[in-house]
Amino acid sequence: MINVAVLGYGVVGSGVVEIIKKNSLSISKKAFKEIKVKKILDIRDFPDSPERELITKNPDDVFDDPQIDIVVETIGGATIAYDFTKKALSMGKHVVTSNKELVATHGPELLALARQNQVNYLFEASVGGGIPIIRPLNRCLAANEIHSIVGILNGTTNYILSQMKREGKDFDVALKEAQKNGYAEADPTADIEGHDSCRKIAILSSIAYNEFVDYKFIYTEGITKISLTDLKYAESMNSTIKLIAFSEKIDDKIVAWVSPVIIGNGHPLAGVEDVFNAILINGDAIGEAMFYGRGAGKLPTASAVVADIIEVVKHLGSFGGYNWSLAEGDNVLDVMETQTRYMVRIKIKDHKNAKNDVTKVFNKIEWLNAFNMDNEEELAFVTEKVLEKDMRQNLEKLKQSEAVEEVINSIKVMEA
Ligand code: HSE
C-alpha cells in the first residue's frame, strides 16, 4: 500500500482525490500496488465534503507521518508550496505537482534536492493540463535534438479568444466563463498577461534543451490588448489570433517568447479552440510531432498528477527526474534581436499623408483592405520580417507623424 497526502484541496487537488478513488482498481493494477489518499492538508473548512475525515489544517499530520510516501502539491504559488516541497523532498518523500510557477522558479534547486535524497519530483501536470508532454519529451523523444517548440499553452486565454471570435463575446464575459469552468489561475492576471504561458514554455524548453531556461528572460505579452476588431482583421487575412508560446534553439542560444500571433488558418494550431492546448515539437529525427488535448480544468489536470503518482510508485527508491544544468548567465537571446512580420493598425488624421509616412518608415508593406472599415479613420498593413528593435523604433517614428493619431495595435504574423 502506498499512502499519498494531498496539499491544497482546490480544483486540482480535489480532482486528484476523486480520480484515485474512482479508478482505484485500474490504477493499482498499473502501479502494481494499492494507492490511497491518507491525508488532505488545507487551511479551509470543508464541512460537507465526503473526505472531511481526511482533511487537516496541521502540516505535521503529513510530514510527521512516516507512512506517507508521496506528497501531491496542488497549493500553487512559490511561497508556502516551496517550503512544503523542500521539506517533503528533504525528508525522503516524493513530490508530484501541477505548480508551474514553483517549477519554473525553483526547478533546478528542487530537482537537485530530489536527486540528493533519491526521490522524485515530477510535474507532468504543470504544462498542458491533461496532455502528456513532459514525459514524452524527456523519454519518448529523448533520441532527438529538439529544434523548436511552438504551442498554445494556456486554456483560459485560448477559451477567451475562441469565444470572442466565434460568439462575438466581450473579453470580460469570456474571462468570467473561463473562471467559472475552473480554467483560470487564482489571479487570472497570470493567464491574460501571458505569465502562465511563459512559465510553461520555460519548463518545456528546459526539458527539451537539457538546460534550465529562466522564465524571467522570456519576452512575454498577453492578450489584454486584443479586440474583436483585431480578430476581424485576422479573419480578413484568412487567419486567426492565438496566444503562442515559442522557443527555438539556435547554436548555444534559445529564442523564446510569448505573444499573441496572427496565424494562417492552415496552421496546425489555428483550429485549436476553447480550453484545448496543443504543442508542436520539432526534433532532428522525428521531424514534427503534435500533442493536443484539454489544457486546463479539474479532471484533465488531475489525470496528469495521478499519472505521475503511478510513475513514482513504479520507480520507488530511484531518482528519474530531469537534468537541468544551470546555464552560465543568460542563455536566452535578447528579444530585440529576433525578427518577425507584423500586422499594424493605426488611427489616422489625414489619409494621404499617413499612407506616405507609413511607406517612408517601413521598407516594404502590404496594405490590408479592411472588411467594411471606414478607411478614412484607420489604416492597417502587414510588414516584412523586421527586427524587434527596428520595429519598436519604426512605431515610435509613426507616432511622431502629424498624420497619425495613434498606433492602435501591432501583432506578430507567423507563417503557416
Ligand atoms: N490557468 C491555466 C490555464 C491552468 O488556463 O491554462 C492550467 O495550467
What can you tell me about this protein's structure?
The chain is an alpha/beta fold and 416 residues long. The chain is 36% helix and 27% strand. The protein has 14 helices and 19 strands. It has helices at 11-22, 24-31, 60-63, 80-90, 100-116, 134-140, 155-167, 171-180, 189-192, 195-209, 228-236, 298-314, 351-361, 388-400, and strands at 2-7, 35-41, 55-56, 68-73, 94-97, 121-122, 146-152, 211-212, 219-220, 239-250, 253-264, 276-283, 287-294, 325-326, 339-348, 365-367, 378-383, 386-387, 404-414. Strands 7, 9, 10, 11, 12, 13, 15, 16, 17, 18 and 19 form an eleven-stranded mixed beta sheet that branches. Helix 5 (100-116) links the parallel strand 5 (94-97) and strand 6. Helix 7 (155-167) packs across helix 8. 45% of the residues are buried. The mean pLDDT is 95. The site of L-homoserine has 11 residues, from helix 7.
List the helices and strands and how they pair.
Layout: E1 2-7, H1 11-22, H2 24-31, E2 35-41, E3 55-56, H3 60-63, E4 68-73, H4 80-90, E5 94-97, H5 100-116, E6 121-122, H6 134-140, E7 146-152, H7 155-167, H8 171-180, H9 189-192, H10 195-209, E8 211-212, E9 219-220, H11 228-236, E10 239-250, E11 253-264, E12 276-283, E13 287-294, H12 298-314, E14 325-326, E15 339-348, H13 351-361, E16 365-367, E17 378-383, E18 386-387, H14 388-400, E19 404-414
Parallel strand pairs: 1-2, 1-4, 2-3, 4-5, 5-6, 8-14, 9-11, 11-19
Antiparallel strand pairs: 7-10, 7-12, 10-11, 12-13, 15-17, 15-18, 15-19, 16-17
